[in-house]
Amino acid sequence: TVDRIRVGQFEAQLEYLASGGYAIIGLAELLDFLDGRRSALPPRSVVITIDDALDSSSGSSSAAPSADGTR
Predict the structure, then answer these.
(1) pTM of this structure
(2) Minimum mean pLDDT among 2-6, 22-26, 49-53, 58-62: which range?
(3) How large is the average pLDDT for residues 44-60?
(4) Could you say which of 3, 13, 24, 36 is the most buried, measured as most Cβ atoms within 10 Å of its Cβ?
(5) What is residue 71's three-state secondary structure?
(6) If you write DSSP's letter for every residue of 10-70 in order, what string do you get?
(7) CB 30 within 8 A of CB 49
């Protein structure tokens, strides 16, 4: 089966993370930390990935903030 999420649901999940004090970081930041090139990550860090294997996900991640928290 394929799990799909509507944009509104994704936005609600992002709001939940923001209101819970989570810091959205980029995958590169996490890899730098794991490889020892970064000494620490912000508290409550999360990385968001999107599986783009389906055409249906193309362009639907515009609600996702960039690594600096902007959209």
Answers:
(1) 0.65
(2) 58-62
(3) 75
(4) 24
(5) coil
(6) HHHHHHHHHHTT-EEE-HHHHHHHHTTSSS---TTEEE-----SSGGGTTTTTTS--TTS-
(7) no
